[in-house]
Design brief:
Helix content is 37%, strand content 15%. The protein is an alpha/beta fold and 313 residues long. The strands form 2 sheets. It has a 5-stranded parallel β-sheet, with helices on both faces. A 5-stranded parallel β-sheet has the order 8-7-6-9-10. The two termini are 24 Å apart. Bound molecules: N-carbamoyl-L-aspartate.
Length: 313
């Protein structure tokens, strides 16, 4: 089995160097049978408690962090912001202090604010195990890791790959973390494709080719990553019409024919069928969407292990 890398916090891809990112991916690959429930759970984190602190909705990320912790033998506490004292005005830091005082060991945090997880990390110091499970538009590092793992499983090393990210780039923490990680790993070529209003100025970079039309961005791509239109991050009235968006930007089988013959389709979920992706593509042979979900458990096991497995503190 590949060794467990050591890491105390993962707030953004910037916390990783290339060697650590590769070690996490190798470890996740080695953990796949346990992560998939096909091999017995481990006891590496027996006696440890992982707190899922989610202030935003989630299906995949929340459940996969919980399963990852349990399949390493840890206990899990699931905190629900809408039924907690957050609704009574308690701050994120006070909520963390309360849960930490109960003798918990690691915190998995999702928040709508771009800076919330980084601010919490700064307040609690570098020694408390903390993972960002999605902060506003800023970062979603474990999603980027599971995407990179899925690409490597399907297509091999990233160095020869052309990866096209399509859709609501502007509001996407998935796009931001993916672009950072794929550059760190040395991807062949990166493209982002969106209508002008959904491009992100902060992602302007000579290493990333920007397209305002879908078809040329798909030409020859090895990986096509579709993103949901994130209405919840847009001002009222600012959302594109779903049917119009699909007409110009929806990933259909006909459009996908421009990509490489072996191209794979990724999507972080939740998918909006008939908007950014047609059902025929989401359910089609190139779709790796459910493989991504499976890899999410393995990657989160590798990350929790890296945070907590070194000698008990
Ligand atoms: C994404 C997220 O929450 O950032 N989903 C996920 O974590 N798998 C993408 C989205 O919400 O569209």
């Amino acid at each position: 089995m590949s060794p467990t890398p050591v890491l105390r916090q993962l707030t953004d891809i910037d916390d990783l160097d290339r060697a650590t990112a590769l070690a996490l991916l190798d470890r996740a690959q080695a953990l796949r049978e346990v992560a998939g429930g096909r091999a017995p759970a481990l006891d590496t984190l027996a006696g440890r408690t992982v707190v899922n602190l989610f202030f935003e909705n989630s299906t995949r990320t929340r459940v996969s962090f919980a399963l990852a912790a349990r399949r390493l033998g840890a206990e899990v506490v699931d905190f629900h912001a809408h039924t907690s004292s957050t609704a009574k005005g308690e701050t994120l830091l006070d909520t963390w202090r309360t849960l930490h005082a109960m003798g918990t060991d690691a915190f998995v945090v999702r928040h709508a604010d771009d800076d919330a997880v980084a601010a919490l990390a700064a307040a609690i110091g570098p020694d408390v195990p903390l993972v960002n499970a999605g902060s506003g538009r800023r970062a979603h590092p474990t999603q980027a890791l599971l995407d990179a793992l899925t690409m490597r499983q399907c297509l091999g090393d990233w160095s020869g790959l052309t990866v096209t990210v399509v859709g609501d780039i502007r509001h996407s923490r998935v796009a931001r973390s993916n672009l950072k990680l794929l550059r760190l790993l040395g991807v062949g070529a990166l493209r982002v494709a969106a209508p002008a209003a959904l491009h992100a100025d902060d992602l302007d970079d000579p290493a990333v080719q920007r397209f305002e039309q879908l078809e040329p961005a798909l030409a020859g791509a090895d990986v096509v990553m579709a993103l949901r239109v994130q209405h919840e991050r847009m001002a009222q009235g600012g959302s594109p019409d779903p049917a119009a968006f699909h007409a110009d930007w929806g990933l259909t089988t006909a459009r996908l024919a421009r990509a490489a013959p072996h191209a794979i389709v990724l999507h972080p979920g939740p998918i909006n069928r008939g908007v950014e992706i047609a059902s025929e593509v989401a359910d089609g042979p190139r779709s790796m969407i459910l493989a991504q979900v499976g890899n999410g458990v393995a990657v989160r096991m590798a990350v929790l292990e890296a945070l907590l497995a070194p000698a008990p503190r």
